[in-house]
Amino acid sequence: MSTSAPDAYASSSAAFFGGMASSLTSVFFPVMIGTFVGIGALAHGFGFSFWWLATSTVVVWAGPAQVILMSALGSGGGMIDAAVAVSLSGVRLFPMVVALLPLFRGRGTRARDLLLPSHFTSVTTWVESQRLLPQLPHELRIAFFNGLSCGYMATGLVAGSIGFYLAASLPPLLAGGLLFVTPLAFLCTAARGARQMLDRLALVLGLGFEPVLTYYHVGLDLVWTGLGAGTLAYAVHRLRQVAA
Q1: What average pLDDT score do residues 21-45 get?
Q2: What does pTM read for this prediction?
């Protein structure tokens, strides 16, 4: 279902709309629909307004962080606690922003040109950008990425509104299950893209560590899973290089 970006566009405007078109034909398009239908239903269940849902989608632009924000505020938590929780959740996107910067920067790229792409960076846009942006000239990549992200964001807004207004008839178990569509899609994409032994080992170790840490109620289990699995996989990779 996914398509590739063409080698070039006639202008930045054409690249922007090409990015939007790519978002609508991407494998992540139905994933975004399922995820934000669940988020919309969750917002309705916590008593938030539709405009609050739409604003938080644009401003936060991260499904897990949006769920954390709604859960914290909806359960009576304080604004500061919610802000800290959302900020900690957003830290996971920082390495993705750093990884995308070399793809964006070219001759004449200004710092202000990178502000919007930095906000738009998410798991979904990062995965698709790694696949599509190298096929484009540097001067068109930012426009293409902004179009891709706007397409995904528009999909999230529409799907969120559908979930919000269908919340009364949407089974709670289904609404909750839809929130897991994005991480499952990311897992499948990461597994498909793992071509080196290092990547495959880190993925397998992560899948093994996480259930154990969760069973023993270890705090920050996802953080420790990533650090432990990634470090151990890298150590094995270095030992193999030395032995060779």
Answers
A1: 88
A2: 0.74
